Amino acid sequence: MASTTTTSPLLLLLAAMAVATLVVAPASSVDLPSGFSSITSKIPNPWSAFQDLTGCHFGEQQQGLAKVKDYLSHFGYLPESSSGFNDLFDADLEEAIKVYQRNFGLDVTGAMDASTVAQMMAPRCGVADVINGTSTMGSGGSGSSSHLHGRNLFTYFPGSPSWPRSKKRLTYAITQTSLTSIDRATLSQVFARAFARWSAATTLNFTEAADDDADITIAFYAGDHGDGEAFDGPLGTLAHAFSPTDGRFHLDAAEAWVATGDVSRASSDAAVDLESVAVHEIGHLLGLGHSGEPSAIMYPTITSRTRKVDLAEDDVAGIQNLYGGNPNFKGVAPPATSSRDMDSAAGASSRPWTALVGAVAVAAGLVVAL
Ligand SMILES: [Zn+2]
Ligand SMILES: [Zn+2]
């Protein structure tokens, strides 16, 4: 995983990347069965070792805590350490974990309890949750728009960068695909659908272009690819994207991406839905940071074998606040309070909520069944 010394400057400068989606986790992880840590170990990921630290708390010294500090530093919860982190559970770590727990709606214990460890191991976007020590996934009620009921937890990058208001048509190019086995035509369809989720809610339009001069460039890379944000193999960080008007969107070529068909039925337990991750990353490309609203596309984590492609009210409020709304946008379905069956936005493709509900069920099943 990226070392802290190389990652942060980039984050501060470019503000951003991101990925994935997520959905499921908070509610289900809070009530994890006691054996959850051993269950998750069956899907190896770059952060699997965190489960060995379950129960660890302030004052303890345990091998592996330095990696937790690297993780929290990477996502903005701890400042970098020029000399490297140690394995002591100190006050700074306790405080960082508390902020992390607040952001993800977990019990604020300041300790590596089972729910926190499980959340930390979830596949996620590589973009930091806390940038410049300020953005905190809206958990403080930072949403400036109050025309919608409920909490607005969307965030922007520091300074709220966006594409120029006069530029309504943005182009994107798929520039680097040699490391993925997904064919070009399929990629074009997946990314077009992902961009359409955002154009439906705003006055922005997106067109695929053939060259690198496009406003947005989409590329599949493996490991270190030159921007200080090395990818880490299956699961872990899935992708990242930079804030406006950088335009770079990178995906980890090592993921078991699913571009067609029902991801919840994928053969690999580590399968990740490409379109779901793309919708999230495009949010970053347009200027949205991470949201603490679990139903939001801009929530930082996503569970494998899960599809989550519909903008939630929180996403719509955030993006319309930045670019204005599409008069033809019919809005998102009323938020489901007892379940997460958010329907799709207007014009969205048809598999919407049944797919999401199914995915959540499968994800929940994964927790219990694996
Ligand atoms: Zn993200
Ligand atoms: Zn990158």
From TrEMBL:
Protein residues bound to Ca(2+) 1: E255
Cofactor info, note text: Binds 2 Zn(2+) ions per subunit.
UniProt signal peptide: 1-20
Keyword Hydrolase annotated: yes
Binding-site residues for Zn(2+) 2, renumbered to this chain: C125, H280, H284, H290, M298
Superkingdom classification of source: Eukaryota
Positions bound to Zn(2+) 1: H225, D227, H240, H250
Annotated positions binding Ca(2+) 3: D232, G233, D252, E255
Active site (record annotation): E281
GO MF term (any one): zinc ion binding
Residues that bind Ca(2+) 2: D215
Biological process (GO), any one: collagen catabolic process
Peptidase metallopeptidase domain boundaries: 159-325
Cofactor section: Zn(2+); Ca(2+)
Record GO cellular component, one term: extracellular matrix
Keywords tagged on the record: Calcium, Glycoprotein, Hydrolase, Metal-binding, Metalloprotease, Protease, Signal, Zinc, Zymogen
Family: Belongs to the peptidase M10A family. Matrix metalloproteinases (MMPs) subfamily.
Name the UniProt record assigns to this protein: Peptidase metallopeptidase domain-containing protein
